[in-house]
């Protein structure tokens, strides 16, 4: 797969007029929305960050790697930033810390940013709107739905199998995700509903922090969970469960984690955000050179980061998946990407997809102005400037959407009408 890394000489040739046209269009759009002003400083020649001492939160997951690598490799310092990366206990703790200003930004779930900004909490439990924004996306793919070994042994592997067990044997299942409006919750809900299982009526859906998934499955607290790696691979390693489906099989190249900050932080510190994004882009490029992934697994596996064996992290990071205890590894071409496949682009349509699912499940009572909200959340102006600084080309097709996208059940997501898409499902709130 051809990477979109642009060498300096390529950047000058890139279609300088096209690049400037795109950058100008993004800036103009944000100026008209009141998001970019002279006081914001993005257009100033001086690119010195307003704030240089930063703390970024992360959850112990493989996809925290861009922040860790940018810190460990001195890339943040290259851009004039002194960054401390701080391990967080849960996504809820991350949300609270960033809202209170205890951390400046975070490796965070895209669905969390959307939910916070629009007031989507759990089903039927709205929360106060707290505007946040995305500077760039951090990864696509690389999550999994794990089910316990007893279910595998009983040949209960699909949502249809689960539905049958519920109907015929009155089995009470408990499944876990990591945060109600987050990505893992949406993957789990989508998967279950595809087989006729209503996640709010037919079983119990609970919230568990990612590093605690394996322990909770061991003690019998749940029958399955959706989480990022390495906690899917860890269940296989320990012989307690297997992968029912990877999230890339649900939706190839789906958006996942992002680099998120408060909207107020981005408004007050635009040059800091540009530097932060540019440095993280470089880390993402480094990570997508496969010869670096062994070193990456060693670094992020350390106790202060993911606290997991290097080999457990490395297998799926290299696209080698053991789906259940005792099975051989198979190659998955759609393993986690950090830079290739336009991974880092903050597409408006992806924010809109999460709004459509929050609406579907009753987390958002009122229809949002999808496009307007997506433009506020996805800071394409900052991303465009960061790409200039890091020498990264913008995507050929623009940043509004990747066009129509088909998920594993054949359902087509048309970004032209996210509300109709979200309300088209037979199973919804």
Our count of helices gives: 20
Sheet having the most strands: 5 strands, mixed
In which range does the helix fraction lie? Answer: 40-55%
Which structural category do the helix and sheet elements fall into? alpha/beta
Low-pLDDT sequence parts = 1-44
Q: Reading side by side through the largest sheet, how are the strands ordered? A: 2-1-3-10-4
Shape: globular
- Averaging pLDDT over every residue, what do you get? 91
What proportion of the residues form beta strands (DSSP E)?
5-15%
Distance between the termini: 40 Å
Count of extended strands:
14
What Rg is obtained from the alpha carbons, in whole angstroms? 21 Å
Account of the 3D structure:
With 429 residues, this protein is α/β, with parallel strands linked by helices. The strands form 4 sheets. A 5-stranded mixed sheet has the order 2-1-3-10-4, with helices on both faces. Helix 6 (110-118) packs across helix 17 (348-360), helix 15 (293-300) crosses helix 16 (310-317) and helix 17 (348-360) packs across helix 18. The chain contains 20 helices and 14 strands. The two termini are 40 Å apart. The model is unreliable at 1-44 (pLDDT under 50). Strand 13 (405-406) and strand 14 form a beta hairpin.
